[in-house]
Design brief:
Layout lengths: L5 H10 L2 H5 L2 E3 L9 E7 L5 E7 L5 E6 L14 H6 L1 H5 L3 E5 L8 H19 L4 E7 L1 H13 L11 E5 L6 H4 L1 H14 L24 H12 L10 H13 L7 H19 L19 H7 L7 H11 L9 E6 L9 H11 L6 E6 L9 H17 L5 H11 L26
Helix pairs in contact: 1-5, 5-6, 8-10, 8-11, 9-10, 9-11, 15-16
Length: 437
């Protein structure tokens, strides 16, 4: 690793005004840390709030955390408190932890990457340069972190801002590919349900999510999905029509039944933000030539499903914002549940292909578990990833899947949750699960 130069550090101080540092407040740490630490809250010059936690036994390694989403709720002082609690194992292992709320709700890959880098520089100006810095991206934050390492990983003088990257449950297929199955879901759902929108409501392109002035709530959307599919009812209480609708939708769009409402929510409210605010009313999705399969009558589905085509300029702008190109200057370790109900495990295949295409496959190690969750996997597994990434950074020798699993067993003596690594698992290509186009 190249040492950070004084010039690079000075440039970092200019990146975020000093007023951002002086806005910092000593704040009581959450009890969930279970270790003595000092915590700080503040806001940067763009209005992004943040939490920082520095354990008393700090190992002088900083973990910069990029959160998932995109969140659509207003920014608050404690926006990152839940993630600090969720990933408290990081602080318990002796790492300092810092996370930005990002400057505003909604889509913005490069924005979120910049806000994360802003906070890293704030940390350096307040606490001094750590010996090493790890970038951790969770869920959509995996996309943010994967983009951030390509943009901010190396300074013009060759010094490194980050020494390693950890991506967990990552949405890392690139933004132009990661949401195609949700665009498909909107079209297929509407073919069977005809209630989003209803026939007597304003008709809008499904790719746009929802009219800009709509007051629909998540609860109201869930009621419509349940009305059509009975997904929130015990199976025995569903009508025959609800059972058929639900079976057809899930046969065509292979997502777990338990997450149908949440996927519909993303393809409604997040799509509205992405297409209307970020892309100015342009469509980055196409299903114009998709041949849907798996239903009880594929011919009828393909004749009647709503079709839409992408605006090439929208695709290009979304790719610029949040597609990756495999430029990873440091080791990258990932972890993904095989049955992740929110972020398809096949995203990992798409990312691996991009990294290999750039000739950087030796800098990537992907790990998989047999868990069934997305937002939080077992604590010993995160501790193992950090251990093996640190050793990789120190030695330059890429660990094996078996070494990661063995490290997890060691940490399982201290942390609950067990170890669930499947060391021989290889995910299928993304377009084996998502319809190609």
């Amino acid at each position: 690793m190249k040492k950070r130069s004084l010039a690079a550090l000075a440039a970092g101080l200019l990146f975020a005004p000093a007023t951002a540092v002086f806005a910092q407040t000593v704040t009581a740490c959450p009890a969930e840390l279970h270790t003595p630490a000092k915590c700080y809250t503040g806001a940067d010059h763009n209005g992004a709030t943040y939490w920082i936690a520095v354990p008393d036994n700090w190992n002088h390694v900083l973990v910069m955390h990029a959160h998932g989403g995109p969140r659509l709720t207003p920014i608050k002082r404690d926006s990152e408190l839940a993630d600090l609690k969720r990933f408290a194992v990081t602080v318990r292992e002796g790492y300092a932890w810092a996370a930005s709320s990002y400057r505003r709700p909604g889509w913005g890959g490069r924005m979120a990457a910049e806000d994360t880098e802003n906070l890293r520089r704030i940390f350096v100006s307040r606490f001094g340069a750590p010996k090493q810095t790890i970038l951790h991206g969770q869920s959509w934050g995996g996309n943010v972190a994967a983009k951030a390492i390509e943009i901010y990983g190396v300074n013009p003088d060759g010094s490194h801002n980050y020494d390693g990257v950890m991506l967990t449950s990552g949405v890392i297929a690139g933004a132009t590919r990661a949401y195609l199955h949700r665009a498909d879901l909107r079209a297929v759902y509407q073919f069977y349900c005809h209630n989003h929108p209803r026939p007597d409501e304003e008709q809008y392109p499904l790719w746009s999510g929802l009219p800009a002035d709509s007051k629909m709530t998540k609860k109201e959307l869930a009621a419509r999905v349940n009305e059509c599919t009975g997904v929130q009812l015990p199976a025995a209480q569903r009508t025959p029509r609800q059972k058929r609708n639900l079976a057809n939708i899930l046969a065509v769009i292979p997502i777990p039944e338990r997450t149908l409402v949440s996927h519909m929510s993303w393809s409604t409210f997040m799509f509205r933000d992405l297409t209307q605010r970020f892309l100015g009313g342009r469509n980055p999705f196409t299903n114009a030539h998709v041949v849907y399969r798996g239903s009880s009558d594929d011919a009828a589905l393909n004749r009647g499903v709503a079709r839409f085509d992408a605006d090439p300029s929208a695709v290009a702008d979304l790719a610029y914002d949040a597609d990756m190109f495999g430029k990873i200057p440091v080791p990258v370790i990932t972890m993904h549940a095989i049955d992740d109900p929110t972020a398809l495990v096949e995203y990992e295949s798409a990312y691996k292909d991009v990294v290999a295409g750039a000739g950087n496959q030796d800098k990537l190690l992907q790990n998989f578990t047999d868990e069934h969750e997305h937002s939080k996997l077992a604590d010993p597994e995160y501790a193992a990833l950090l251990d093996e990434l640190m050793q990789w950074m120190a030695s330059g020798k890429k660990p094996t899947h078996e070494q990661v699993a063995a490290s997890c067993e060691k940490h399982a003596r201290q942390y609950q949750g067990g170890c669930h690594f499947e060391t021989g698992y290889v995910p299928k290509p993304l377009f084996s699960r998502v319809f190609p186009r």
